[in-house]
Design goal:
- It contains 30 helices and 33 strands.
- It is an alpha/beta fold and 795 residues long.
- The protein folds into four domains: 69 residues, no CATH class; 301 residues, Rossmann fold; 213 residues, 3-Layer(aba) Sandwich (Dimethylsulfoxide Reductase, domain 2), CATH 3.40.228.10; 119 residues, Beta Barrel (Barwin-like endoglucanases), CATH 2.40.40.
- Helix 1 runs parallel beside helix 3 and helix 8 runs parallel beside helix 26.
- The chain is globular.
């Protein structure tokens, strides 16, 4: 579809208010609880000592308890034996890779993976009778754990303007409604098309094709909220925005740095890999503000020793860095390596690798030498002696892997921090050889595949050239909105339609009240979902819930069972084949949903055979092969057991940067240093949570039961403020412009965390994250760097 071929007939005037003021929310309840947040009511909080090991028999108990309650024991066990198996379905939880097919156990899942599968395969249903019984205001009174527990969405629903209840709508009518709203816009850029990391490669490819044929690059996705900083830093320095290690590298590593991540909760299957690495002689170093059970020790639940409660020690060194002190810590390691090169051992710096494969070394060395130890220790919170001791160990090997997650990616200086990590690996030549490399640990099952398939608001021209050539149209070239820009555009009346392909956009986004206002300004919000969530309760003038098949469910098109594909954190593309009956006969697969919406919206403006493509998903993969590099013989290679690995040139010491070299980055050292009386807060997950999905109000590893409105504080910081354990406190966020945001009625919990630091769960604490406080370059919200004050609650 050429840009000038769109319908130019007169359009109705926008119905979205342009004024920044809004009418009262009609869905507020009688207590004044806003529908964009769970109710701030305390439950029976119970505290225990934090755990010092992850998994073990208790993990099995809690997983089976959830499975039995949701799916039934026999049915649930049958489903679990198909998770992450060759010929089975990909876990809808994290993106940690699977072992080779011959090396997998019969139970290739973790506690949180079992919970995710149980939630998807629950026997409970949210249907028209449910919505007739519950108004939106009634649903808003409940917590997120209650919403998720109600079951699978069973049929498409609509919330009409001014209505208090959702009601059924036929699929044809739903697609027509979305198409009419999209075609009534004065510009395609007035629509926002969000994607979560649960979407398959096939659905993601069709989605971006539809959106670009419609005429916009407004394709924000969950990467904008999490690992966008990783991709930016890696792309600028190494030329590839993905991790460079494979699973077997961990058993070959000498040192594994685990930075700003909590594998015991966020990607528990990683613990098996780490245990195996330790058994092969690797030393693990944890760098994290909180002491986390999954970094300390692991009791493998599929081994007799683990089931008896005996655990393998993981991290032999634990550096409790200050929040946002990681850049300073890694600068200190580099400084110590330079000092060692001068005074102890000349091979502490790999000059051969540096001279042959890198650029910018002299400028970086000058910046390191100008950085003082006083500054490094003040900003990092780690003693010089500890930094030098770790540097001496690093100087003895080039088999070093560095893993990180959101603890590094959600700060103002996140890109510079990750570049500092890469600087360290470049100094040691720890790239492009077995047992070494970079490993950003993705948090959702196909978030990396979505980006590979073109879900990005800034795809390069050469990629768009191939897309246009394959489908005979000229894709839009101007950059679209990322998540933060989308929220701002909706809030300012520049975008009027929001379409979400999966996820829980409201709860995942920063500045909760601002985001809620933005969504309410839309004419239409449509959510493709499997379960009920808070984004269904904070809506535009009209709202749609479009229920889709889950990963575990049989997808039959043209009388033939289909499979989809995904890409894990390490660039392995493999099948996901659901084999169980759908939760409802009214569910559509995401590829079919996108194709039908494209046909209804684009009509004769598109020559793509949408319906033909989704009759056989091999046809979609053939189209992907024509557009996406590295997918030659896609249909053949993905049918091999275990799939296939995408090429990663860094593994061969090839760096596709502008000069063919890996780049040292001499960024100035920076960190947020709160003023007296202030603290630096980071948002975190609880153990019984996956992204924004809340399974319960417990956090077993941190000793919390039956409460989520928690703030973890250093005991001395509590004493300075006259706070007692479990006291109700209000958190006041202070942004760089001096504006304040308040999260009321949190319980103050003394915890092992550095002075000046605090932690609270998201999405409850997202209200404190300013919409315009984002990482440099990546524009990721700074959810790990929130300046706050803490004071007793004001009733």
């Amino acid at each position: 579809m050429a840009p000038d071929s769109r319908d130019t007939s007169p359009k109705p005037p926008p119905t979205t208010p342009e004024s920044p003021s809004l009418p009262p929310n009609p869905f507020d309840d009688e207590h004044g609880h806003p529908s964009d947040e769970p109710p701030a009511e305390f439950s029976a909080l119970h505290l225990k000592k934090p755990e010092h090991k992850a998994a073990g028999p208790e993990a099995v108990f809690h997983a089976m308890k959830k499975v039995t309650r949701e799916a039934g024991l026999v049915r649930g066990l049958n489903i679990l034996t198909h998770v992450n198996q060759d010929g089975g379905f990909d876990c809808p939880s994290c993106a940690w890779p699977d072992p080779e097919p011959g090396e997998r156990t019969s139970f290739e899942f973790c506690e949180n993976g079992a919970k995710a599968v149980a939630a998807e395969t629950t026997t409970k249903r949210v249907d028209r009778a449910f919505f007739a019984q519950h108004s939106v205001a009634d649903l808003a009174r409940h917590g997120d754990d209650w919403l998720d527990a109600q079951g699978r969405l069973a049929e498409p629903m609509i919330l009409r303007p001014g209505a208090t209840h959702y009601e059924p709508i036929a699929w044809d009518d739903a697609f027509r409604l979305v198409a009419d709203e999209l075609n009534a816009l004065t510009s395609p850029d007035e629509a926002v098309f969000y994607t979560s990391g649960r979407t398959s490669n096939e659905a993601a490819f069709l989605y971006q094709l539809f959106v670009r044929q419609y005429g916009t690059n407004n394709l924000p996705d969950c990467s904008n909220l999490c690992h966008e900083s990783s991709g930016a830093a890696l792309g600028l320095t190494l030329g590839v925005g993905k991790g460079s290690v494979h699973l077997d590298d961990f058993a070959k590593a000498d040192i594994i740095l685990l930075v700003g991540q909590n594998p015991g909760t966020n990607h528990p299957r990683m613990l098996t890999t780490l245990q195996n690495a330790v058994e092969h002689g690797a030393k693990l170093v944890a760098i994290n503000p909180l002491k986390e059970a999954g970094l300390l020790a692991f009791a493998h639940p599929q081994q007799v020793r683990g089931m008896l409660g005996f655990a393998t020690t993981l991290a032999d060194t634990y550096l409790q860095v200050k929040i946002n002190g990681d850049q300073a810590l890694f600068r200190g390691l580099a400084k110590a390596l330079f000092d060692a090169m001068l005074h102890e051992r000349g091979d502490a710096i790999d000059r051969l690798f540096i001279n042959e494969h890198t650029s910018g070394f002299d400028a970086y060395r000058e910046v390191v030498e100008q950085t003082t130890w006083v500054e490094i220790t003040r900003l990092s919170g780690i003693d010089r002696e500890q930094i030098e001791a770790l540097a001496r160990r690093l100087a003895e090997t080039d088999r070093i892997i560095c893993c990180w997650a959101m603890g590094l990616t959600q700060h103002k200086n996140s890109v510079a921090t990750i570049q500092e990590v890469i600087n360290l690996l470049l100094l040691r030549g720890a790239l492009g050889k077995p047992g070494s490399g970079v490993c950003p640990v993705r948090g959702h099952s196909n978030v990396q595949g979505d980006r590979t398939m073109g879900i990005w608001e800034r795809m390069p021209d050469r990629w768009l050239d191939r897309l246009g050539a394959a489908f005979n149209f000229d894709p839009p070239r101007h950059h679209g909105f990322d998540v933060v820009q989308s929220i701002q555009a909706m809030h300012e009346g520049k975008a009027h339609v929001f379409f979400g392909l999966g996820g829980n956009f409201l709860s995942a986004s920063p500045d909760t009240h601002f985001t809620a206002e933005a969504l309410r300004r839309c004419r239409l919000t449509a959510q493709v979902s499997t379960k009920l969530n808070r984004s269904h309760l904070v809506t535009g003038r009209t709202a749609l819930i479009l229920p889709c098949l889950g990963r575990s469910e049989r997808d039959i098109q043209g009388g033939v069972e289909q499979f989809v594909t995904v890409e894990n954190s390490m660039g392995i593309v493999h099948q996901s084949h659901g084999g169980f009956s759908p939760a409802s006969p009214h569910l559509l697969s995401e590829p079919v949903m996108i194709a039908r919406l494209a046909v209804e919206t684009l009509k004769e403006r598109s020559t793509v055979p949408w319906q033909w493509l989704v009759e056989d998903y091999d046809r979609i993969r053939d189209a992907i092969e024509r557009v996406v590099p590295g997918f030659d013989d896609y249909n053949e290679k993905v049918r091999h057991p275990g799939g296939f690995a995408l090429e990663h040139p860094v593994r061969e010491r090839r760096f596709p940067t502008w000069d063919g070299k890996a780049h040292f980055t001499p960024a100035p050292l920076s960190a947020i240093e709160p003023e007296p009386g202030q603290l630096l807060l980071m948002t975190i997950r609880s153990h019984d949570q996956f992204n924004t999905t809340i399974y319960s109000r417990d956090d077993r590893y941190r000793g919390i039961r039956n409460e989520r409105r928690i703030v973890f504080l250093n005991q001395e910081d509590m004493h300075d403020r006259g706070l007692e354990p479990q006291q109700s406190v209000d958190l006041t966020g202070i942004d760089p412009q001096g504006r304040t945001r308040i999260a009321r009625h949190f319980r103050a919990i003394p915890y092992d965390i550095p002075r000046g630091c605090a932690a609270a769960y998201f999405p409850e604490a997202n209200v404190l994250v300013p919409i315009d406080s984002t990482a440099e370059i990546s524009n990721t919200p700074t959810s790990k760097s929130i300046v706050i004050t803490v004071a007793p609650s004001v009733d």
